[in-house]
Amino acid sequence: MSFLEIRNVTKKFGSLVAVSGVSVTVAPGELRAVIGPNGAGKTTFFNMISGFFPPTSGDILLNGEFITRLPVPDRVARGMARTFQITEIFPELSVRENVRIAVEVAEGMSRHFWCGAAARARVDARVNEIVTQSELMPQAGRLVGELSHGDQRAAEIAMALSLKPKLLLLDEPTAGMGEQETHQVAGLIRRLHRNSGYTIMLVEHDMRVVFNLADRITVLDQGRMLADGTPAEIAANATVQAAYLGNAE
Amino acid sequence: MSGALARERPTTAIVIFALLLTAPFWLPYVGGYDALATRVLVFGLAAMGFNMLLGFTGVMSFGHAAYFGLGAYGAGLMLRYVTSSTMLAVVSGTLLGGLAGSLFGTLIVRRRGVYFAMVTIAFGQICYYIAYSWNSFTGGFDGLRGFSRQPIDLGFTSIDIQGNGTAFYYFVLLIFALAAAAMGLILRSPFGRTLLAIRENERRARFLGIPIERHIWMSFSISCFFTALAGALYALLNNFADPLGLHYTLSGEIVIMTVMGGMRAFWGPLIGAAVFVVLEDTISSMTVNWMSFVGIIFILVVLFFPRGLLGMLKRRDAA
């Protein structure tokens, strides 16, 4: 039983082969990490899954349906939401407003010119629920642009959660963060995974984050899949150690 | 509260409407007159319509004079050739400018930034040269004359807005107030918030599932309708439609009014229009180079109060 299935995808940019024949299967409720040294093709791989551009060849299936060439809004409608390496938020709006926009879009209200009292109450309740779930209640009224890195990331995750995703794609969720913020964001991801049962796929650089969080790890190197297994298996894999862990640590 | 407009305090609107409602009584004491106040409303409406696009969607157009001018010609041509109903003329002008903007918008919403701005200029100049060249229909370079605003027929009575400048001012103020209310409601709606989302971060908005192009197109169209409405009122104010009302210099003036007044503030463009129109009126009686004074003030505002005149007042308030 697979929720996300990536079959033999390849992406070429001109003569550069960024991703070459990678296949990955993610089970429902799984937290999958994709790691690899710089230039391994992690971000290209991620962008194909989230619909930034289609693969040159190969297929992507979500819940058994081919989504290889679907545009982003259609992927979102099928339960896919993502965050970015560089936090993508609405900086001059408050946390609550950021989440409200996402909730209204998810509720299919993005073309409504009027919001009745019942709909507003429903949206308000959902906004509160998500702000609480992403542990941002104390900052709810502040402009997102003024928050710390970690809180901005939490706000971005909150927006992704507003879409009621079945699959959450996180692109280097702790990129550029200090010890404490990394801990905060990793903790949030763990609780979302354990308590709310989201299927999550994340690309990550920080090895400790990955080994503490992931159910399974996929290792990419120079566009190819080097290994795929549980954190224990990956840690014991000699090829991976040579290619990545040896260099990184 | 909901939406970025929640930070917009109602006191601003109350003060503005108190001043506008009483303008005909206090204006003569400060050297103003009804037609000047009407001009402020007309350009304020044009700039507020434009600001739906610039300030609240984050998309720049340098061609809004096209829709303003089409609104003016639409109203003028109706009164001249078809009807004696002022309201019908206003509606026609609004529809002409608004629909032209909507159609043109479908072609250009995929362009961004300077490319978008460039094609909007080009469209405006096409309209300008059509009005300029089509002598027999539009009056060519001399503009469209030979029409005048007609009394408003309410059934039980009719209101003379031609001979009575004050009555016309209140007529324009009523339309302005309704248009401002409509814009405010649009911006506070879920749709309005998607525009803020696009302004703030287009990529994030796209990955939330907002169809960016369609929403920019809707914002552009709505913006064109309001600017065209202002143009129609401008034709009534002058009993004249001028090809210069389509020219890109006016597009630039609309941008100046908006930025000077404060494009992040709902009422900012109205304040900008008031300053612009009053400066034009007072300085142009002293020198033909009045625009250089406006230019200096514009530069000072942009340098020292990047959030515009209204933005500056608000920040001082908050501090």
Q: In summary, what is this structure?
A:
The complex is a heterodimer of chains A (about 250) and B (about 325). With about 250 residues, chain A is an alpha/beta fold.
Protein described:
The complex is a heterodimer of chains A (249) and B (319). Chain A contains nine helices and ten strands. With 249 residues, chain A is of the alpha/beta class. In chain A, a hairpin with a 2-residue loop joins strand 9 (216-221) and strand 10 (224-229). The longest helix of chain A has 18 residues, at 179-196. By secondary structure, chain B is mostly helical. In chain B, 73% of the residues lie in helices and 1% in strands. The longest helix of chain B is centred in the C-terminal third of the chain and has 27 residues, at 212-238. Chain B is globular and about 55 Å long. Chain B starts with 9 loop residues before the first helix and ends with a helix. The chains are: A alpha/beta (249), B mainly alpha (319). The interface between A and B is medium-sized, with 33 and 24 residues.
Number of helical segments with 4 or more residues of chain B: 14
**CATH class call of chain B:** Mainly Alpha
- Assembly state here? heterodimer
Q: What share of the residues of chain A lie within helices?
A: 40-55%
Strand order, main sheet of chain A: write it out.
6-7-8-3-9-10
Biggest interface, chains and residues, is: A-B, 33 and 24 residues
Major β-sheet strand ordering of chain B: 1-2
Any idea what the radius of gyration of chain B is?
19 Å
SSE topology string of chain A: EEEHEEHEHHHEHEHEEHH
CATH architecture of chain B: Orthogonal Bundle
The biggest beta sheet of chain B is recorded as: 2 strands, antiparallel
Distance between the termini of chain B: 22 Å
Question: How many angstroms separate the termini of chain A?
Answer: 35 Å
Per CATH, the class of the largest domain in chain A reads: Alpha Beta
- Domain module count of chain A: 2
